[in-house]
Design a protein that fits this description.
about 325 residues; mainly alpha; 2 domains; two-stranded antiparallel ribbon; 13 helices; about 60% helix; globular; Cyt_P450; oxidoreductase; iron
Length: about 325
């Protein structure tokens, strides 16, 4: 109680006014969203005002509960109303095939990621980008500028160095694998040579990847998008500070290696890479937007390969843990 008293005493009248207005706007927004969706949604549990079915989502054996709801409402498609977008549950293979495969252009998409795409600014990542024209453009650019045969020499060098390092190492192979991945990506993407897994060109994207891994849905702003306008100086704005930190990492991961290649190209010392190959073709009248898109495309390869590497290392640790608890 004492902590709350101190906290409330530090809030000025202006702060209280903004909090009250934001709360009322949040309630109004939630009602408007729910009202707009209610008539078009499939059947589902009734739920509470504002919170909807947030407390109805089963923690244990969710498939059994979902199946029971399907039987209760006589529908293979169930809707759970939540703060923000509803949760749609497809309860049969037939419905999933029909909606997500046969009519994928209508129903298959990524959810709105307010924290990652709008606050962190990671919307240039293909793994987070919603389907649409921009996604199609990025896919075409990726196919055009990233081709496997071109980077084969860098892959061979990275693998040979990795094998040599593995033979010389007694244990702790994880840094060697990380270094191999980093060597291949940075040399083929940007012409950058690295000799340590702790190199900043490897650490920056890895820190970003680890930072965004638990973020999807972890913040209230993903359920209440209006909170993205919440001032960072107000109480409860910790997510704004997290977003600012991750945004800086995302920007550095995308721009710093590309800038390195541009600088090397200007000095005439650039090595063979996807970035150098593209930048050599850039003309004075090349739109800045195209350069930014290609920068993002190569950044996608950069981030994507490191994500895969981090996943493999995580899987290895998980398997080791699993073997200790499962006879």
């Amino acid at each position: 109680m004492g902590i709350l008293t101190v906290l409330f005493s530090r809030l000025s009248l202006e702060h209280w006014a903004v909090i009250v207005i934001a709360t009322l706007a949040l309630i109004r927004f939630s009602k408007a969203v729910n009202k707009g969706h209610t008539e078009s949604l499939p059947p589902g549990p009734r739920g509470w005002p504002i919170l909807g079915n947030a407390f109805d989502i089963p923690v244990e054996y969710p498939w059994k509960v979902y199946r029971w709801w399907s039987q209760e409402f006589d529908s293979d498609i169930i809707a759970l109303k939540l703060p923000g977008p509803p949760l749609i549950i497809l309860n049969s293979a037939r419905v999933a095939e029909e909606r997500l495969n046969k009519r994928s252009m209508i129903y298959s998409d990524r959810p709105r990621m307010v924290m990652l795409n709008e606050l962190v600014g990671a919307g240039w990542n293909l793994g987070l980008m919603p389907y649409g024209e921009r996604f199609k453009v990025f896919r075409r650019l990726f196919t055009k500028h990233i081709d496997v045969p071109y980077c084969r020499p860098q892959a061979v060098v990275a693998v040979r160095k990795c094998l040599k390092d593995l033979l010389a190492a007694d244990m702790h192979h994880d840094p060697i694998v990380r270094l191999m991945t980093g060597r291949f990506i940075l040399s083929s993407g940007y012409g950058i040579d690295v000799n340590s897994a702790d190199d900043s060109y490897i650490e920056i994207p890895e820190t970003f990847i680890k930072g965004i891994s638990p973020q999807r849905g972890a913040f209230l702003v993903d359920s209440f998008p209006i909170l993205k306008y919440w001032p960072s100086t107000f109480p409860g704005a910790g997510f704004q500070h997290v977003a600012a930190r991750l945004r800086k990492l995302a920007d550095n991961a995308r721009t710093l290696p590309f800038k390195f290649t541009k600088d090397e190209l200007a000095k005439g010392t650039a090595k063979r890479s996807f970035a150098a190959r593209y930048l050599e073709t850039v003309l004075k009248d090349t739109p800045r937007s195209e350069i930014d898109d290609v920068e993002a495309i190569i950044g996608n390869m950069y981030i994507g390969m490191l994500v895969h590497s981090c996943f493999l290392l995580f899987k290895k640790k998980f398997d080791s843990y699993l073997y200790t608890v499962v006879p």
